């Protein structure tokens, strides 16, 4: 279980997250929606310990991400996929995927490499295992990023706007992979602007507004009457997103 309690994050004089409470149970797909600057990506970065909290507490399977000795254990349980891939350019797809399992989990190299190739094959990249990032399309690089996260065998997958840098065709490639993972029961926290996709795969939708979590509802209720039953601000947001 991922649990955020009264989370606060401040950058300079700007409060980016304030009194955020969120629980993600094993097997759930929870999508975080909100306008730009609402704190969505910051919340993901707080969950994986990349940002230090200014208040409150976040635990991953009861490991406190604010405590250095517990952060490493928390990170072993959650894999993160970022919007800009963050692959090492001097490493092949297989090398990018196997680096952490070998160095952090102390997996035998041959075993880690075979698993990496199997993961790449599962996302349609079996023939690109030895390619460098510069030789891959954006959609292919993002699929490698997903494989890299899955290679750590995480209990939770954190996805931060993973399609925002992709064109529509590449976006569809990545969303198909995520839909498959959701159907297989992978626990995911998904920050996105892909509204209809969120509706299809999510168990719950949470909505952030100016750093505050203002709505946390089952997906069907969130989208009822275009969000009007959830919150007038949600209805406004959904209407604008669909027009765009």
Automatic annotation (TrEMBL):
Please indicate which superkingdom the organism of origin belongs to. Bacteria
Q: Which keywords has UniProt assigned to this entry?
A: Amino-acid transport, ATP-binding, Cell membrane, Membrane, Nucleotide-binding, Transport
KW Transit peptide (keyword) present: no
Tell me what topology the record assigns in the membrane: Peripheral membrane protein
Which segments constitute the ABC transporter domain? 2-235
ATP-binding keyword on record: yes
**One cellular component (GO) term of this entry:** plasma membrane
What is a single molecular function from GO for this protein? ATP binding
Cross-referenced InterPro entries? AAA+_ATPase (IPR003593), ABC_ATPase_HisP-typ (IPR030679), ABC_transporter-like_ATP-bd (IPR003439), ABC_transporter-like_CS (IPR017871), MetN_ABC_transporter-like (IPR050086), P-loop_NTPase (IPR027417)
Where does this polypeptide localize?
Answer: Cell membrane
Which family does this protein fall into? Belongs to the ABC transporter superfamily.
**The protein's name:** Amino acid ABC transporter ATP-binding protein
